[in-house]
Amino acid sequence: MARVLVVGAGLSGLSVAMEASVRGHHVVVLEKRSSIGGRASSELRDGFPIAYGPHFLLKKGPLHQLVRKVSKVKPSVLPLRPHRIELLGHGMMQPRKPMMDAVLYRRASKSYDRDHPSIQASEDIASWGLGNEDRSRALLDSNLLALKEGWSGLVGRLAVTLDEVGIPIETGANVIEIEKHKVHLSDGRHVEADVVILACGYGQSKKLLPELPEIEFRTASTIDVALDAMPLGERHGILDTKHSMAIFDMKQIHPGIAPSGALLSAVHYGEGKGEDRLSQLCAFMDERAPGWKAHILHERQQKNVKIAPLAGRVEFGFARKSGILLTGAWVESEHILSDGAVAASRLAAEHISKMPLQQ
Length: 359
Ligand SMILES: Cc1cc2nc3c(=O)[nH]c(=O)nc-3n(C[C@H](O)[C@H](O)[C@H](O)COP(=O)(O)OP(=O)(O)OC[C@H]3O[C@@H](n4cnc5c(N)ncnc54)[C@H](O)[C@@H]3O)c2cc1C
Hints:
Layout: E1 3-7, H1 11-22, E2 26-31, E3 43-45, E4 48-50, E5 57-58, H2 62-70, E6 77-79, E7 85-87, E8 91-92, H3 99-111, H4 117-125, H5 133-140, E9 144-147, H6 150-164, E10 169-171, E11 175-179, E12 182-185, E13 190-192, E14 195-198, H7 201-208, E15 218-227, E16 237-240, E17 245-249, H8 250-253, E18 262-269, H9 274-288, E19 296-307, E20 324-326, H10 337-351
Parallel strand pairs: 1-2, 1-14, 2-10, 7-16, 14-20
Antiparallel strand pairs: 3-4, 5-9, 6-9, 7-8, 11-12, 12-13, 15-18, 15-19, 16-17, 17-18
The chain binds flavin-adenine dinucleotide.
Flavin-adenine dinucleotide binds at residues 7-13, 30-33, 38-40, 53, 55-56, 63, 128, 174-175, 199-201, 204, 220, 222, 267, 305, 307, 328-329, 337-339, 341.
């Protein structure tokens, strides 16, 4: 049994703590913020779970499986439906009329025909420009899910399970330096461990471990707003694939998400400056969700967020000789986004028993 210290209590940190504990190790999690969840959190305001950009759970993906395994009550989920997503310039992603368009779509989605505009759009938008076929097929098959409880609900489920098995999560614990078998905190304390697992995102990991290779991330800007109006009507979303922008109404996808109105979550990914992306996204919303600004109850904007690419990721054992393992969506695995983080966590946890213990 190893003493394992996990740095960061986002989805990577919580999942690696769970996987390490299942394998019999003694685990402690340190989180620098006062709350857990990292980018996967959503904040409940007047009944609206305001998130950090649109988040969809891949049905039967690593995160969904983990959550189902730890939950006594299954999370309430409903899928994003292609026949309720408008594809700018083409009508609905899954046309139902005219008959010919409906038939062509059915054929194209069955054979995954990349010449069909809906398949192209799905491949682009389902993984925020990463071109992931699994998530694209999931969108076409109505297997990308919105959660009634928001992503904080998922985080809460993992945290409750960790609490039940006695894994402490210390918040307000900012790790500023690592050496072999020891981490130093900003309040002057240091903590010893056999294995340190960095689950604190790429930027923070690079600060703690400067020898990490550079990764070229995708960048995105997001706007999340709770509204007392429904500017998208009954549509689940509107996609502008030419400009890599999308607006979703999470409340339309899962009516149980919020008491009334709409919960718009919009994203614009790609090159350029964050402020330019944000103003283009605002203009897109002005055009496609008319009047949204006059109905805002709560709002959150992010200028620059990173999306881990498929290429150039780092292996979980990159710093194993220093007693350090890595996890996150930027760490090598077969999956992307939080599924990548959960999959990398499993790989790291499986490796703990091969790491040397502190003498
Ligand atoms: C626009 C956008 C859309 C996305 N959509 C989806 C989606 O649809 N589906 C999906 O599955 N995933 C999606 N993702 C990805 C998902 O949000 C992330 O993969 C996941 O939340 C990353 O979790 P993490 O734990 O690796 O990192 P983070 O959430 O960043 O957590 C890191 C934690 O470490 C803590 N920390 C940092 N430094 C220190 C330190 N020095 N000491 C102690 N603690 C520290 C931080 O406070 C934070 O809590 C999306 C991401 C973005 C940006």
